[in-house]
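User: I'll paste a sequence; please echo it back and then give the predicted structure.

Assistant: Echoing your sequence first, then the prediction.
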Amino acid sequence: MLLLLLSIELDIAGEILPGWNVIASYSHNDAFVSKDNNLPIGDNLVGAAKNLASLWTTYKIQNGDLKGLGFGAGVFFVGEREAQLPNDLKLPSYVTTDATMFYQQNNWRVGLNFKNLFNTRYYDTQGYFVDPGAPFTVIGSLSINF
């Protein structure tokens, strides 16, 4: 089997105001079978969405009694993709939303991350298996930098 992958990715990131950071990403992938004895030429690879996009922003308070307190939110888009080879089953596109709250001082940080905030139902591929995507999840963290 010979596979061909053509990919374009665009990212833009920056600090809009002190403490306010934004990153936006888009990628277009064209991953397909270009030569094979058994699989149809032109079939897309399993789990390879043609379009992916995300927008994430965080803000950390810079002054005053709440200095170091931060929060953020983002949306993530995954386009339609194939669930198997040959291409007989497509998985639908989906959008998930995440959020975060954190407090950071000097070399330590404590935070809560909220994944799939609206409990969007979606499906993932792991090789040739289709699994439900992760439901709403809360993750707590504590980190210390040395």
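DSSP finds no helices and eleven strands in the chain. The chain has a mean pLDDT of 92.
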